[in-house]
Amino acid sequence: MVAGGTVSGAGAPTGPDPRIPSAHQLRLFVALSEELHFSRAAARLFITQSALSQQIKDLEQRLGVQLFDRSGRTVTLTPQGEVLLADARGVVTAMDRLSHSASTQARRLSGRLVVGTVGAEAAMPYTRAVLSLLHERHPRVQTDVRSLHFADHFDALFRHDIDVAFLRPPVPDGIEVQQLATEARLACLPASDPLADRPRITLAQLADRPVIDVPPQVPRVWWNFWAVDPRPGGIPVRYRPVASDLEGLLHLVAQGEGMCFLPAAARDLFPRPGVRYVEVTDLPPSTAGLAWLRNNRTEPLIEAVADAARCVASA
Predict the structure, then answer these.
(1) Which residues belong to any copy of the HTH lysR-type domain (predicted)?
(2) Chain centroid offset of residue 210 CA
């Protein structure tokens, strides 16, 4: 009778059908058909020759056909064995595919990755490519993308408020970076500056222009690079009011309080009234990258996004 979704009663099956071969036996059958030698096949399968022989005999009994002719000094497939070999290979291949798929699913990560971005990094193509590849590989990982200010984007990593950050090096000690792109830097000038309408200028022409500064908690190694301090020839940089984020910086530039240097993408992403972007012929380029704390490099989520970044960078 049927009760609770189970079948009971006399004659009900109580176990596997003894006529159905196991996937292991089919794998042994395929290996022996390729070697046509019990000793070599057993060595390849890491089992004893007697165990292999017994399994093949049991397989033949289950199938009701003889698979191999053992009458001479060599082992050959019987006509029945030849016919069944293709099906056996199909089953073994399907089992291997199933095992690989199950293993892949078991390795897939889950959890929440907190991603920090500075300026326009969230909109950059490499950022989208890295996060897209991460989601493709690990669909159960959730990403929380947060916009950071100049003043706290490194501190956010050290405080563990974020796991990784898309940012612009250089970085202070304790942080590792996977480089993703290289880009020119431009001078960001007040529109009233006589140099603002020129197609290109040099660093020497900017020697007397004051530069907008950043809060003291920002690592100086970072802002010195972006302020080009010191200038060629050791010329000191004069600093003016402090900005803690990009909008504040652009506002001060538009007000004529000073200038700054920004990635070339800013010209398209941050056009502002009162601001002009000008090419500087002797200004070294900048890099963009994904950063994480060196001490956290082996954490599974960080390893996963770092590997995605390496793949995007190599492509």
Answers:
(1) 21-78
(2) 40
**Phi-psi group of 56: left, alpha or beta (phi > 0 → left; psi -120 to 50 → alpha; rest → beta):** alpha
At 204 the pLDDT is 94
Residue type, 184: A
- Rg for the chain (alpha carbons), in Å? 33
- Residue 314's SS3 state is helix
Q: Residue 225 belongs to what H/E stretch?
A: helix 220-227
Query: 280: pLDDT confidence band, cut at 50, 70 and 90?
Result: very high
Phi first, then psi, for residue 188 (nearest 5°) are -105, 110
User: In CATH, what number does 185-284 get?
Assistant: 3.40.190.10
Q: What is the pLDDT of residues 127-173, one digit of tens each?
A: 999 999 999 999 999 999 999 998 889 999 999 999 999 999 999 99
The per-residue pLDDT for 9 is 47
| CATH, domain range 110-182+288-314 | 3.40.190.10
Q: How far apart are CA 165 and CA 89, in angstroms?
A: 48
What pTM did the predictor assign? 0.66
134: closest CA among 168, 164, 90?
Answer: 164
Phi and psi (nearest 5°) for 15? Answer: -170, -175
pLDDT at 17: 72
DSSP, residue by residue, 33-65:
HHH--HHHHHHHHTS-HHHHHHHHHHHHHHHTS
Q: How far, rounded to the nearest angstrom, does the alpha carbon of residue 195 sit from its chain's CA centroid? A: 43
If one counts every other C-beta atom within 10 angstroms of the C-beta of residue 124, the result is 20
End-to-end CA distance of the chain: 62
The domains spanning 19-106 and 185-284 adopt the same CATH topology = no
